[in-house]
Request: fold
Amino acid sequence: MGFPNAPARSRASLRESGVEALAVAALAVLVGSAESVRPIGSLDELAATFELSRLSQASARFDETEPRALSARTLHQTPFEAVRDRLAALGIAGPSAEPFWAAAHGNLTRLEEAQGWWEVVHGEVAPIVEDAAFVEIAAAQLPPEPWNAGTWRAWTAALKLETGRKGRDLFHPLRLALTGRESGPDLAALLPLIGRARASARLSAPAA
Reply:
């Protein structure tokens, strides 16, 4: 059986399109009830919220955009242990898998997108160098390892003092060079995972 007012959107088709199982369950139970549709952490949590007496007497309304939005919000609150095996099936495993999940999961809309960010951290990317002179200074100012959550702040503070740049003028060229992408997870969390060797190589790439 599908959702109200959405005959083409069966539970199976939603799962096949990458919507999280817990999001599908939340939609199936909460749409048409007096409870707000929201992310849930487990089926037990969902069962505890369900009461037949709270089902609405009015026709349920289904928003076609809601499954993906709810799925993303579900991922954003999902702990690493709950997705460890699924991440491993995508090739995301090892000691850095958990800190990677902590850094990346807040920007995912589908779990499979994690593969792309794992490649940004551990693989090859095509750096985008939009300001070669500034990126060269940034490469020269890279702090020595070991790196941690404070490295990004210390590095960018030093660059701000040396170049006078701030805001987007400071951060955007670094994001493009380090990740090859316009937006994404917080670089303070990504930078230690990328590591100094990869960061230096990407900042030293020739301008396109």
